[in-house]
Amino acid sequence: MRKKLISTILLAAAVILMGDSLFEGTLPEIVVHGDREPVSMISKTTVDSTATGHYSDIAPALESLSDLDVKIGGKGESNLYIRGTGKERIKLLIDGVPVYESYSGLFDLGMIGSAQVSRIDIVKGGISSLYGANTMGGVVNVVTAMPTKPGLFASIGDYRTSNIRASMGGKIGDWDIGGYAGWAHSDGFALSSDFDPENTVTGIGSSYGEDGGLRDLSYYNKVNVGVMAGFEKGSTRLDLRARVDDATKGCTIESSRYWEFDIWRQWQAAAYVEKEIGER
Hints:
By secondary structure, the protein is mainly beta. Helix content is 11%, strand content 39%.
């Protein structure tokens, strides 16, 4: 015990006498960084080509990528799954701004019309440290673009299905001004041609009460409107954007249920400022 105590006292004295010289030297540089998983991109061409017929939103375009799946929820909403991870762990952005509170998971992908979409960026995997909370499944960023000229698209289909999308853009002085509007309506979609109204599971005598032909409560009305303005002078760029999405639609999922939801309205307003500071 005495030998240990003497050794400790001698070591302490040596440290005091040597001072800072005992710790002289340079530690190797440590760099901590995160590499984002490569981004998958859905082009405007794909968005427009899939938003036809009964669909006028971005949900079909998302399903064009592997590992992405869109399922219909209890209120008839389109929910996104990435590699099996549900909507509560997927962050949905429009121009980099979250469009809903992630834990509620109530936002309907079918509410985002295709009229204003320039592209969709998707990052898959657990990257919460880079994009914030609730991103274990991934991140979907819907990128809109300032219209530069007039545009018009229209389509019609069975059961009074109609889609109309229009955009307009130009310059007023130093400002770039643009806007878009989309309207979609359908009485619904048809059941399979071999559907048997007399079957006891989903037929007339069941809790679903389907009699064939048009699927009950599969109708919808959707409206998307947005305006944009941009100003650039020198190294400063200002962008102002606002959008409103609204819809009324029936729900076709459960038996013994005849629901209509007309409170899907959501609006968003955002301002972006970019300024270059110093030399590159």
